[in-house]
């Protein structure tokens, strides 16, 4: 597991929470 960045909303401007893994450069 790497470092995760939690993004509320995001590009879809919805109330969903996205987790971005900065180690693998992928969205979880």
UniProtKB/TrEMBL annotation:
Source organism superkingdom: Eukaryota
Family annotation (InterPro entries): Kelch_1 (IPR006652)
Protein name: Uncharacterized protein
């Amino acid at each position: 597991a790497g470092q995760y960045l939690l993004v509320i909303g995001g590009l879809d401007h919805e109330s969903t929470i996205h987790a971005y893994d900065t180690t693998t450069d992928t969205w979880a």
